[in-house]
Amino acid sequence: MKIVTVVGARPQFIKAAAISRAIRRDLAGRIQEVLVHTGQHHDENMSGVFFQELEIPEPKYNLAISGGLHGSMTGRMLVGIEEVLVEERPDWLLIYGDTNSTLAGALAAAKLHIPVAHVEAGLRSFNTRMPEEINRIVADRVSTLLFCPTETAVTNLRNEGVTRGVHNVGDVMYDVSLYSAERARQTSSVIKRLGLKPGHFALATCHRAENTDDLGRLNSILEALGKISEDLPVVIPLHPRTRKQIEASGLNLLVRKLRVIEPLAFLDMVALEQNAKVILTDSGGVQKEAFFYGVPCVTMRDETEWTETVEHGWNQLTGADTHAIVSAARSAKQGRPASPYGCGRAGESILDTMLNA
Q1: How far apart are CA 185 and CA 272, in angstroms?
Q2: How many Å apart are CA 325 and CA 160, to the nearest integer?
Q3: CB–CB of 19/350 below 8 Å?
Q4: Mean pLDDT of the chain
Q5: What is the CATH number of the domain that holds 215?
Q6: Of 37, 118, 207, 239, which residue is the catalytic one?
Q7: What is the extent of the structural domain holding 19?
């Protein structure tokens, strides 16, 4: 069986690692994987180093497509992925998550009548102003196999009338977290390099368009992080989109109190997550990584797809309200023990299902 896997952004590299490892463990050699990197994240610390640290095979194809408006980017990806699919003639197209790369892969395969398998299907924020929400809804509609990370995702699909090909396999990111936690402890020196004390700093990330493209929201978030830094050092690996907006909008003064660093390699990011007192983020993946590593989280969004993290007390939703963010960070505490994301073998379950489909 030949699978073409499409990835393009940091969260997808992480998820693809779980499947790629499961493929390599298949001693019978029943699966051939062809990896396509769209180039959506092309920065070395957000792309190349991830393949090395996560032990993902080098992509056979790198389309080097990034930048531009959503429609332009997705259209260029659609053309490039279609050419790859015509050349490779795979049995399956495997996609992850909710990026423009996900959408382009799903549409290209569907139009060529190649079955699509969507990992992380069924997630919903119920906010269609988010580009990611549109991407995941469309991807789910054209997928043959829908691999859900939680029972909530299964329920979301059922409520939309989608039941065929739906499987709750658990979360591949949990697979990766189990694999990476000890490696990060053994190999990363980022805590020492940054002069941090474990358990005595906050880690922040901010990259979603709803926060970076709205200057009012971005201003409020940066003000909140500045206030938190009066009590606790705040480390922020700054996403290129966010940095560009800060510089273009004259908000540089608001980040002077923060420990602004470049985007991190994967294992360094895991090490910071494991050692933070609290994590503040608008990233779905970082929310879950906080949960996996037992660190309280503040999500600077109005909603989350990962409702289980909130229900079990590990995550607080604040939107972009300065007072709410600061209050949540200062009162953050550990939640209740829970295991809503499977047993850490989602990769094997996905491949078994595809082989038997």
Answers
A1: 10
A2: 33
A3: yes
A4: 93
A5: 3.40.50.2000
A6: 207
A7: 2-171+342-356
